[in-house]
Amino acid sequence: MIQVAELSSHETDALLKGLSCEELQNVREAFHAEKANIDGGKPAWVLPRNERIYYVAQLQNEPYLLVGIHPNPLPRSPHIVNISSLARVSSASKGKAAECLRTIIQEKLVPFCKQNGKSLIVTRIHTERGFKAFSALQSVRPCGISRVEIEVTRPDWSCTMSVDVQEAQVDEL
After folding, report:
1. Fold for domain 2-172?
2. Whole-number Å distance between alpha carbons of 118 and 147
3. Nearest to 65 by CA among 119, 95, 101, 94
């Protein structure tokens, strides 16, 4: 069973600082803004809450997938949320990233979008593993997402997910 939690900056920082070398390498590949803090030897590795909100998916009560979102990436486009980073933080079991990502989107990001008037979740995918996780969402869309589009923008990929805001209004009645 997958459990999802929003982490405070302090909790996220403690999680990152407790990772093994392999797990930390996954974070360094995907968390570009945080990488500068890690490499720079700063006391706090994570970004403040106004720049990132962190979610962790846990398998068997152990952290598995860490996702960072930028709640307001483009001030001129207030309807967008950006998944800025995504990394597997466990070497225990592989192949669960797509399922964990789907659960985070369903349980945390879709409600966040609905509460804050956001209609799109976007991301730029930098790793092959991330591409595979997002591609799996096309066949098994998270509840509350009406469309998932993956676009090749070499050397990266981009993904756009449309949040079904009308569904939220019907469900709340």
Report:
1. Aminopeptidase (3.40.630)
2. 14
3. 101
